[in-house]
Amino acid sequence: RKEVEQDPGPFNVPEGATVAFNCTYSNSASQSFFWYRQDCRKEPKLLMSVYSSGNEDGRFTAQLNRASQYISLLIRDSKLSDSATYLCVVGVRNDYKLSFGAGTTVTVRA
Amino acid sequence: EPEVTQTPSHQVTQMGQEVILRCVPISNHLYFYWYRQILGQKVEFLVSFYNNEISEKSEIFDDQFSVERPDGSNFTLKIRSTKLEDSAMYFCASSEWQGDTEAFFGQGTRLTVV
């Protein structure tokens, strides 16, 4: 079983729409969770950390469900500039690395 | 805003040659990493480095790979004898705290082995 699994998409949405997608992780010892954004052939960039209570950063909302071992990302009022691949990233307590999902591709069209 | 910088941005090398990829982590960060991403695939962990020694390494990081922090600022990845399958984007990253915390990535070095 993969450590981190994501729906690859693509999610094609019009500007202004809301799009949401999930990620599941297999290791119950995971304690840190992030969403990174990756543009084509560029480096991953931290979008937001995900906290147990859920958190919001502008148009982006992340949720964590420890019982079911998934995290979600919701993007409201999508902009063309939101088109990217969103990487679900998980860290395990006392590990010295992060584990990446394969990414969910979002394309926002005008 | 502080950032991780990597050089070169693109390296083409012949199979069997040695390559050294260079990185300057964010200055107050203590943990350093190399990840790689083969085209069309996910980002994979290679190695983490703390206090001048390897903290953890993946199965990918075999005897052909080595890392070094030769001075107070640079962090390097050496591949001793490159293979075609080493062609990938190599990302250096650094973090202030231990490896399960948020890491900041350099822009990457695209390695092409021919």
Short description:
The complex is a heterodimer of chains A (110) and B (114). Chain A is 0% helix and 56% strand.
Can you characterise this structure?
The complex is a heterodimer of chains A (110) and B (114). Chain A has 110 residues and is mainly β. Chain A contains no helices and eleven strands. Helix content of chain B is 0%, strand content 50%. Chain B has strands at 5-7, 10-13, 19-24, 31-37, 43-50, 53-57, 65-68, 75-79, 88-95, 104-105, 109-113. In chain B, strands 2, 4, 5, 6, 9, 10 and 11 form a seven-stranded mixed sheet that branches. A four-stranded antiparallel sheet of chain B has the order 1-3-8-7, with no helix packed on it. In chain B, β4 and β5 form a beta hairpin. Classes of the chains: A mainly beta (110), B mainly beta (114). At the A-B interface, β4, β5, β9 and β10 of A face β4, β5 and β10 of B.
Protein topology:
The complex is a heterodimer of chains A (110) and B (114).
Chain A lengths: L3 E3 L4 E4 L4 E7 L4 E9 L6 E6 L4 E3 L2 E6 L4 E6 L8 E9 L5 E3 L3 E6 L1
Chain B lengths: L4 E3 L2 E4 L5 E6 L6 E7 L5 E8 L2 E5 L7 E4 L6 E5 L8 E8 L8 E2 L3 E5 L1
Parallel strand pairs in B: 2-11
Antiparallel strand pairs in B: 1-3, 3-8, 4-5, 4-9, 5-6, 7-8, 9-10, 9-11
